């Protein structure tokens, strides 16, 4: 417990969590141990009080009807994953999450879709929330302004692109990030994302006044009570109980008193074991939004990008035959690429236009 520095048992953690109206369970999306812990928490809370509602970041609200059908038991696993567009929308190995979904169905626990269409978040990052039409906003209300602490945290993410939130942030780099042209839009897109999920949680909690609402979402949306907790407060909801799983390879110095209500230590896994078998390879670049493309800020040593000869300052303008204008496009395309395949890129370097081919190794080679 960061606030007190005390350790408590899992049983006591479940008992204390059961007293809260809203509980947020964090995760690193590709870490199976985090999802096993989530199932343990949900099972324990349900055993104390079966009046429960679940919410998942993994689903956009337009598939709410499909979630209702799943809980009702009318869909097979295959049909469920197809109809929620799992591979397209979330893309992480469904085996990471299916035990949670099956537990909900076995116990007739309502599931709420917390997210919105990804294209909405991209549109906000590109042109700003104020320039998005009302019909495109999916009912999401005006987000509360980001606190200074959250802006600093997001600046660190903006510089590192979320590769490892446990790494410390250099103050000078953070200030540089906050001064970059794309940072304000990045913050705004994150705020809309947080607001959408907080609003779905608030609506679900109000629609089920006698039930506890347990939400499953990435840890970055709840650390230090930023993100979703800030938006819930703006919506007039009680403070959620924030529980974040931790891994031994991350430094504990990062955990301050206000980091979370509880931090759960879990067994460390090799990187290859943390990733699901269907996760794609990695290019190995740090990216930033640029004019007419996506800028490479830095290259990961010994990566596919380094072997390809990509350099900081290169502008990615095309990938797999598609025009590239947003960071999310690069992420989505690489995620959809398979080990052992090739990915054509069009890169602008100074005044030259380069046609390159990224050659991803077999999975066993990149996982080592």
Automatic annotation (TrEMBL):
Q: Coiled-coil regions in this chain? A: none
Which residues does the UniProt record annotate as the domain PDZ?
270-337
Q: Which domain of life is it from?
A: Bacteria
The record, for Gene3D superfamilies, names:
2.30.42.10, 3.40.50.11550
InterPro entries assigned: Cofac_haem-bd_dom, PDZ, PDZ_6, PDZ_sf
> Pfam families annotated for this entry?
Cofac_haem_bdg, PDZ_6
State what protein this is by name: PDZ domain-containing protein
Q: Which organism's genome codes for this protein? A: Candidatus Tenderia electrophaga
């Amino acid at each position: 417990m960061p606030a007190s520095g005390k350790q408590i048992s899992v049983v006591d953690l479940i008992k204390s969590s059961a007293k809260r109206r809203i509980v947020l369970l964090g995760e690193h999306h590709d870490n199976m141990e985090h999802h096993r812990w989530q199932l343990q928490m949900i099972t324990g809370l349900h055993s104390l009080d079966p009046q429960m509602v679940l919410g998942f970041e993994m689903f956009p609200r337009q598939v709410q009807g499909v979630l209702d059908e799943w809980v009702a038991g009318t869909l097979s696993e295959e049909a469920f994953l197809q109809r929620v567009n799992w591979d397209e929308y979330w893309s992480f190995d469904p085996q990471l999450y299916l035990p949670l979904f099956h537990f909900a169905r076995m116990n007739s626990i309502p599931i709420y879709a917390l997210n919105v269409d990804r294209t909405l978040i991209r549109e906000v990052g590109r042109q700003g929330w104020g320039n998005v039409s009302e019909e495109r906003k999916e009912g999401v209300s005006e987000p509360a302004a980001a606190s200074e602490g959250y802006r600093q945290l997001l600046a660190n993410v903006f510089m590192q692109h979320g590769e490892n939130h446990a790494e410390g942030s250099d103050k000078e780099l953070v200030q540089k990030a906050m001064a970059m042209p794309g940072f304000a839009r990045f913050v705004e897109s994150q705020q809309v994302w947080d607001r959408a999920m907080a609003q779905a949680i608030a609506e679900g909690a109000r629609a089920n006044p006698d039930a506890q609402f347990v939400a499953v979402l990435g840890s970055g949306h709840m650390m230090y009570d930023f993100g979703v907790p800030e938006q819930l407060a703006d919506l007039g909801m009680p403070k959620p109980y924030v529980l974040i799983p931790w891994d031994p390879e991350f430094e504990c110095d990062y955990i301050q008193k206000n980091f979370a209500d509880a931090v759960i230590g879990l067994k460390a896994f090799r990187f290859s074991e943390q990733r699901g078998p269907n996760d794609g390879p990695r290019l190995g670049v740090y990216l930033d939004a640029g004019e007419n493309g996506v800028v490479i800020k830095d290259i990961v040593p010994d990566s596919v990008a380094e072997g390809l000869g990509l350099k900081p300052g290169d502008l990615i303008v095309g990938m797999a035959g598609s025009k590239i204008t947003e960071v999310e496009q690069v992420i989505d395309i690489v995620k959809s690429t398979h080990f052992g395949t090739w990915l054509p890129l069009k890169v602008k370097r100074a005044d030259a236009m380069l046609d390159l081919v990224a050659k991803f190794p077999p999975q066993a080679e990149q996982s080592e």
